[in-house]
Amino acid sequence: MDASYLVKLLCEISRIMDENRERLIELDSVAGDGDLGLTMTKGFRAAYETAEASGEPDAGRLLYNAGKAMSSAAPSTMGTLMALGLMQGGKVLKGKTELGAEDIAAFFAAYEEAVMTRGKAKLGEKTFLDGFDPGVKALKGALDAGDTLAAAMEKAAAASEEGFKAAKSMLAVHGKPAVKGEASREMDDPGAAVAALIMQAAASASA
Questions:
Q1: What phi and psi values does residue 2 have, to the nearest 5 degrees?
Q2: Who's near 165: CB < 8 A, 6+ residues apart?
Q3: DSSP string, 130-153
Q4: CA–CA dist 102, 207 (Å, integer)
Q5: Which tens digits make up the pLDDT trace of 105-119?
Q6: Residue 189 phi, psi dihedral angles, 5° rounding
Q7: Which residues are CB-contacts of 82 (< 8 A; sequence separation ≥ 6)?
Q8: Is the dihedral of CA 5, 9, 14, 16 positive or negative?
Q9: Sorting pLDDT into bands at 50, 70 and 90, what band is 178?
Q10: What CA–CA distances, in Å, run from 189 to 119, 142, 206?
Q11: Of 29, 42, 50, 93, which residue is the least packed, with the fewest Cβ within 10 Å?
């Protein structure tokens, strides 16, 4: 497996964000400004197109440049966090032209760390992390148990979807949803939905 896997991954993320654009807009409109679907579609498309056109064999450089492209194309809070995830993943994979399943797990772990650090959020605060972290943990656990990357990513996608569903009952701590107070416990979190979509796309790319 080489850097072309990452191009395929970004292609699948771009595709799934485009397919779910209206859904994300609807989720974000409940307590936010409703632009999440547009931001994610535009941002991940820029990341994919940059990676696809680069022909870059260095996995780290490919991801870093894709993240920079996303940051420029989608300079919103969420766009910036997603771009930083790609860039941090790029730093972890710097210099690698051949990738193993453990490298993909390391990429996702670095992605989560970047979002957590920059976003200053913790698990249980009804954010992207509550959808993403279960997938990251499931991926590592499955690989440690000897699963193939394809099987492990399927488990990660399922875990992220469950994380998204579980986040609904959480109290929002950050951003506009936090203004809703206890009422936020009745709302799906759009960030956690994005996390589940990313993991779903990764499962598709790894099949």
A1: -125, -165
A2: none
A3: HHHHHHHHHHHHHHHTT--HHHHH
A4: 16
A5: 999 999 999 999 998
A6: -90, 120
A7: 40, 43, 44, 70, 74, 115, 194
A8: positive
A9: low
A10: 15, 26, 26
A11: 29
- Cβ atoms of 109 and 101 within 8 Å: the answer is no
**pLDDT attached to residue 184:** 63
In this structure, the chain runs to a length of 207
Give the mean pLDDT of 197-202.
98
Per the CB < 8 A criterion, the answer to whether 82 and 44 are in contact is yes
Q: Which two tokens stand for residue 145?
A: 């148990």
In angstroms, how far is CA 7 from the centroid of its own chain? Answer: 15
Q: What are the CA-CA distances from residue 144 to residues 32, 109, 138, 155, 199 (Å)?
A: 39, 14, 10, 13, 18
Give 98's strand partners: 2
**Per-residue CA distances from 55 to 3, 48, 89, 117, 206 (Å):** 9, 12, 18, 31, 20
For the chain, how long is the longest CA-to-CA vector? 49
Q: Where are the beta strands (DSSP E) in the chain?
A: none
In a 3-state reduction of DSSP, which class is residue 33?
A: coil
Residue 102, both tokens: 């453990």
Residue 115 is encoded by which pair of tokens? 């979002």
In this prediction the pTM is 0.94
The token duo for 120 is 């200053």
